[in-house]
Hints:
The protein is α+β, with helices and mostly antiparallel strands and 152 residues long. It has helices at residues 3-18, 50-76, 86-95, 107-110, and strands at 26-28, 37-39, 46-48, 113-117, 123-126, 144-149. A hairpin with a 6-residue loop joins strand 2 (37-39) and strand 3 (46-48). Helix 1 packs across helix 2 and helix 2 packs across helix 3. It is elongated. The two termini are 29 Å apart.
Amino acid sequence: MNDQALQTLTEQLSLQLFEKPFKHKAYFNARLRTTGGRYLLKSHNIEINPKQYQVYKEQAVKEIVLHELCHYHLHLEGKGYQHRDQDFKQLCKKVGAKRHCKPTEEYEDRVNYIYQCLNCKRTFKRIRKVNTRKMRCGRCKGKLIIKEHVHR
């Protein structure tokens, strides 16, 4: 699937399910890492993570486009377009848009740091570095140390 096919799919879904035209651009953005897609408030364009298509094919892209179209149409109508807004939740339910997409990588594959509690010896896997002076063990409030830094 290329950008033109994505644009066509977005326009078709907009007309079929929302009964309103999609007048902006939909395209793939390879820089997206942690999200399936996003609606841009200023330009009104929709960006889709190409990894979603590579891993899960066209069905996943359709689900993400539906979700982003909910943001798009509600924002243009001046209604609540954010995830927490009731308008957004209702429209997602009406058109069958999912709240989240499947991750392209498991959390385990993305882990960069492994911490261990000095007191209870429990380990914690984290993607981002944690300030061990501030953060404590969630179980016993013990001090954390970096057990391992996974280099990728």
